[in-house]
Amino acid sequence: MPGMRRHPLVLLDYSGIVSQTRPHFLPSAMLSLVSLILETMALSVVMLFVLSSVTCEENSGTREWFRANILAVAALLGYAGRGMLPDVLSIEAANLLFMAAISMMLAGFRRYEGKTFPTKLLAGGMAVVMAVILVFHYGVDLPGVRVITVSIFHGGVCFAIGMTVRRMIPASQPHYPFLFTVVAAFALAFGYAVRAVHYMLLPNLAVPLFASTVWNTVYFSLGTLAFPGLTLGAVMMTNARSLAKAAYAADHDHLTGACSRRAFFQLAEREHMRKLRTGGDLSVLLFDADHFKAINDSFGHAVGDQVLAEIVKCTQKVIRNIDVCARLGGEEFAVLLPGADAGTAISVAERLRAALEGAVLATSANASVTCTVSIGSATLQPQETLAALLVRADRALYAAKSAGRNRAMCAEDVRRIEVGT
């Protein structure tokens, strides 16, 4: 229209929308822009409902991501009101809210990682950006400079998000939620960088805002997907952590941290099948805490629980990383020893017995609480079933207890004794 100023194109935070006399009607290009902004806002609202359904745990980042989307919705309302709201709301306030929103997203990922949030650094960056926006809006009206400045800030925060999540990619549990978030964050950072460079190369730092160009389409499309994409990645990461915790809880004893009975038998069966298929040795230890009932009766169940936990800690120090310690129930424990022959198994059993014999496992009313163990060991024989192996280990354990406790016996010795008698 004659007499109207041409406006620069905008990406993601829509900060390049410049001051103008409010029109009495909205041209089709403006309606298209408002539609994209409202679509982004609608997606952010959807993400708010998704986040509200996610369990809020300590150090999960969920609260920060929820607040980030609230801030984003408020900012997008300001952008959508351009031409109808005062400039201070649709430019300054909207950009401040959007910078706070992306910063809050970073805070959520940092909390998820268990790290502190660089509040002073981000607050200082936001103050600098706001100063530039004010100078190049009310001083010298150069929307291109504003776009470049805001793009650098948002690009830097997105890059920080990508680097933060990249450090958290797990080696064992499903890592696709983390990879998705890393790719989304780095893609946004790259988009902001391209946008900043694009504006730097423009003559007079300005082009028509609503021109139907490929760049406009790309920028607006990326802007629409920014917050929903990062939030979706955050939700997937949270669900992955919840599933990992649930799996750990199912496979580990809550009191001692040792493997659960179910997990032990699953691992033992898997190792048993592998040994039958490829050959090699496999041994198992079964052991009980001696006179454990007397500890409970004398010192209480709290002390008894502490003794059980300390037994597991001591066991973990004695065995190898590839070995598996499990609590089968009560004061009964088991250790799976892949690749260990009979001599190695009884040697490990004796080291474990000696370590526990000399350890103070708990204290109560200034009294030291000690506990010995009786251990039975057995080594897999050709074509032997897992059940048969465990029966022989259990018989060796019973023989150790019958012989006076605080000792280790192997199934082979027990068999020789039985044959001799």
Automatic annotation (TrEMBL):
List the InterPro entries. Diguanylate_Cyclase, GGDEF_dom, Nucleotide_cyclase, Rev_trsase/Diguanyl_cyclase
Query: A Pfam family name for this chain?
Result: GGDEF
Q: What class of enzyme is it?
A: transferase
Keywords assigned by UniProt, alphabetized: Membrane, Transmembrane, Transmembrane helix
Instruction: Name the CDD domains on file.
Output: GGDEF
Superkingdom is Bacteria
Annotated ranges, domain GGDEF: 280-413
Catalytic activity entry? 2 GTP = 3',3'-c-di-GMP + 2 diphosphate
Annotated GO molecular function terms are:
diguanylate cyclase activity
The enzyme's E.C. designation: 2.7.7.65
TM ranges are 29-53, 65-82, 88-109, 121-139, 145-164, 176-194, 214-235
Family matches, as NCBIfam families: GGDEF
Q: What is this protein called?
A: diguanylate cyclase
